[in-house]
Design brief:
Shape of chain A: globular
Structural class of chain A: alpha/beta
Largest sheet of chain A: 5 strands, parallel
Strand order of the largest sheet of chain B: 2-1-5-4-3
Pfam family, one (chain A): Response_reg
Number of strands of chain A: 5
Helix content of chain B: 40-55%
Number of strands of chain B: 16
Keywords (chain A): Cytoplasm, DNA-binding, Phosphoprotein, Transcription, Transcription regulation, Two-component regulatory system
GO molecular function (chain A): DNA-binding transcription factor activity; sequence-specific DNA binding
Mean pLDDT of chain B: 80
Oligomer: heterodimer
Radius of gyration of chain A: 20 Å
CATH architecture of the largest domain in chain A: 3-Layer(aba) Sandwich
Number of helices of chain A: 14
Structural class of chain B: alpha+beta
Number of domains of chain A: 2
Distance between the termini of chain B: 60 Å
CATH class of the largest domain in chain A: Alpha Beta
Strand content of chain B: 15-25%
Low-confidence stretches of chain B: 218-230
Number of helices of chain B: 14
Low-confidence stretches of chain A: 143-153
Order of helices and strands of chain B: HHEEHHEEEHEEEEHHHHHEHEEHEEHHEE
CATH topology of the largest domain in chain A: Rossmann fold
Largest interface: A-B, 28 and 26 residues
Mean pLDDT of chain A: 85
Main location (chain A): cytoplasm
GO cellular component, one term (chain A): cytoplasm
Strand content of chain A: 5-15%
Amino acid sequence: MIDVVIVEDESYIRKGMVVTTPWAELGCQVIGEAGDGLQGYELVKKLKPDIVITDVNMPILDGIEMLRKLDGVCDTEYIIISGYNDFAYAQQAIKLGVRDYLLKPIDDDDFYDTIKRVILQIEEKRNMTKQRDQNRLIQEGKGILAKEAGFDAQYDSRQIYVVKARQWIEAHFSENISIKDAALELKISESYLSRLFKNYMGYTFIEYLTDYRIREAIELLKDHHIKIYEVSEKVGYNDPKYFGIIFKKKIGVSPITFKNRYMSEE
Amino acid sequence: MGGLMYGFSLNFINRTLNEQTMNSIISFHEKIHVRVSAYENILLQIQNGLKTSESLNSASRLETDNNEIYEIMYDALEGEVIKPIVHLTNLDGSRVFSTSDFPESYKAELMNKWGVFREIEGQTNDPVIYLQEMDYSREGKTIISLGSKLYDQAGSPTGYILVEMSRQVLFEEAKVFNSGLSNHMVLLDENGYTLFDSINSEMEGKFQQAKYLDLEKIGNHYPIDSLIGNSTFLNLEYRDKKLKTVTRVNVSSNIFHSFNRILTLIIVGGSLFSLLVSIILANAQARSISSPIKELISVMGEVEKGALEIRANLRNRDEIGELGKYFNQMLDRLNIYMNQVIEKQKQLRTVEIKMLQAQIKPHFIYNTLDVIKWSVKLGHQPEAISVVTNLARLLRFSIDSADEFLTIRNNIEFINSYLTIQRIKYNNSFEVITDIDEALMDYRIPRLILQPFIENSIIHGFGKTNKSDGIITITGQFNKSRSSDGNSESQFIEFRISDNGLGMTEQEIQELTFERPEHHIGIYNVDRRIKMYFGDDFGVRISSHSGGTEVVITMPKTMTGEIM
């Protein structure tokens, strides 16, 4: 899985990107979002995501300033989104190691292609480091250990809990689950898991779970024949009313309105 | 005794010449006025002839229709010996009829309503007199343009007409000055640019550089310093209110020359005599006088060649030292004045260019389009529809009208559309209270005067703190100011834009208003633009504290863009 952080000051654009992009199909997950350059800087420094998608024109710290501050902080790929078709800006961005520069209004196909391209580059990079690490371990006579390590060398042991918790959410989101169940599953205390989640993610456990469910619900609502209570059940909410409230809070419209208005792409 | 005689006769000749020359000047101007009136008639005749003709704006390309228009034009010109150049154009310059080539520069001016077209727009009924030099390959130069707006029978504007006076006319009429005396006559516009020069046509279109026509030396006096070179004895100036021109004439005559020689003899003889005496009396002192004079003379020679930055270097504490000092001061003043004029011209040009930049930022448009896209994807159709509608209004406002001045009513409509979009974008996280006095609504102000400050309130005042209970208050009303003598009161227009946002530090305010900030060019320009249009009494004041920012914008009451 590729971790993505989105930095954008316009809430519509940010929310739209987080909620309506088929992240799972692209092999990604959004692990945090920020509304200005300074928040973005703090978040990226903390989460060290694989990809950061950022707007340029933002209050407090603009995108280019944020990149300058993040220069050398972590090994992250940046995609910049801007209303400016400004060569000087683009040049500065490329100097700071930006992979791609997309112009607003964003074309979905361009957007997805760009993300796919960047992911390929990340995987290549990962393979190279894996190779290097394995070679090093083999040279040091620890080859067996390396093979037995079930996870990529990129995670430390505490991060593994968060990764596992996320995988568990993705497998069980349609059931009525809570952080308690996840902690039981991982055999650690509830408070430790919630602390770990906070340290390694831009969202709390419950926020991440809710977002994941809402995203799934949106996919389901694109089917015109489905009933709202069916969707609610499929994404782990027993009470359709409660699901309605949560959905409206996140998206701004009720599930029924969303379903009626959604012009399916066919 | 000789000096006295000389003085008397000189005075007499001087008076006679003065009268003669002044008569010539007045007669020259009368003749030009006659021509201008004739051209005004031509203008009217063509205007009336066109009222019944449809083809100026109809897309008809029929040869017969075009011929009809040319016929009207040439009929009107029939009485003129030296034909003026006539241009007709529709409002956007897409259809042009010309008795010569239609200059490229007019196309740009039409687009932006600059130059002569701005003058025409600002004038109600009489034709405009506009001084400008236009070069035509076949007909040579034109100096004075008359212009007017064209209307159809229903009274709505259809285009413009220009009638341009050829330099040849001025040249012919200037012959009144050939009275046997050598005259140098120049016609300048109000800024001191040369329109016509009877001796040195190279000077036309530039600042007049003939030293002996200098303002400082206007009037009847007979200078004796060598700055004047070939003996100038009479300078006259005549200001023509109708044409807004200044005519200067310099007369130097042989009569003067002879007198001048006598005078020179007397003076030089006298000087030589006294010099002789001084040599005998005080050799050393003589040296201390003659070398500074030489120095001064050589400096003056340099200055005459155009080296204005050179200065006399005299350390004497006597009259010659004084002379040198005054001479230097005069040069300083001349330099300052010239630089001021050049600077003013430069500023005007940059403001005109910047005016083009007084438009909605492209960034805002792209961003808004992106918001529309995502809000549709999120199922927020009503918001998306509202944003699309209002964005279209904003664009129409910027694209459809090239007028720099728009009514306050239009400006407020624009602001409302802008605010509707911004409130949707920022989830209604701020409120707007607008209170504009209805009596203001039909006055005109330059476009995009208010929007940059409102944008600053939203983005700087609220955006940086993620404030969710922001309030922007926009008020507009008349205010009174006392005249400097305290006797009369005059009304002006005052807008206040205040917010309860983050506020700005003194330094931020300084940066916004004085230092050409890159991102806030809009704000920086507003004050400059207002001052350029209306003078230094009007403009923008920003005050701020931790509880928000208040901007006060003052402008005169105007219906046209000109101060009433």
